[in-house]
Amino acid sequence: MRIVVLVSGTGSNLQSVIDAVADGSLPNVEIAAVGADKHDTYGVERSAAAGIETFVVNFKDYAERSEWNHELTEKCLSYEPDYVVSSGFMRIVGEEFINAFDGTYINTHPALLPSFPGAHGVRDAMAYGVKVTGCTVHIADAGVDTGPILRQEAVVIEDHDTEETLHERIKLVERRLLIATLADLAAK
Ligand code: GRF
After folding, report:
1. Distance CA 174, CA 181 (A)
2. pTM, rounded to two decimals
3. Of all atoms in ligand 1, which is nearest to the CA of residue 15?
4. Among 16, 99, 128, 162, which residue's beta carbon has the most beta carbons within 10 A?
5. Domains, the chain, ranges and CATH?
6. What pLDDT digit, counting tens, does each position of 53-112 carry?
7. Active site residue 109
């Protein structure tokens, strides 16, 4: 199963996938490429260091969002992936991309969807005052963090949590769920 992984930042969840592929925990998964929407992300840097092909489709280089979206779609298609994984990819992709990867675009989100979608799922859950949040791995559709849920797990919010401590705890679960999801998909 060939995957392209999209990142916008540090790519620590991506690293867990790279490690799982390297140590044989995901025997049928190949990371065909890692892409980012901006230059100088640690996610791309660590992928290159692992010998994985990387690319950047820099959002800021395009006057129109649709042009960026077209380029990203074409670039991802060029690797002929079975799945594209958004792992901390902080851009909403457009219709052309969603149509090209209909049902094969996977997203991870650090909250229990449909609660707290958007860029600040951890912060918003804390601000609301919920006592339990978590993470979700789902097939992404054209909405913001919407689409069929594949896996989900709860994480309890402790009184002493900050956004950072809670997000780190959620990410530990997120990594495990992402790897389990990829294993499920590769076994199909
Ligand atoms: C993850 O929690 C992801 O769901 C969110 O951003 C985080 C990515 O972290 N959108 P990293 O880049 O994998 O470290």
Report:
1. 10
2. 0.96
3. 13
4. 16
5. 2-109+137-152+175-187 (3.40.50.170)
6. 999 999 999 999 999 999 999 999 999 999 999 999 999 999 999 999 999 999 999 999
7. yes
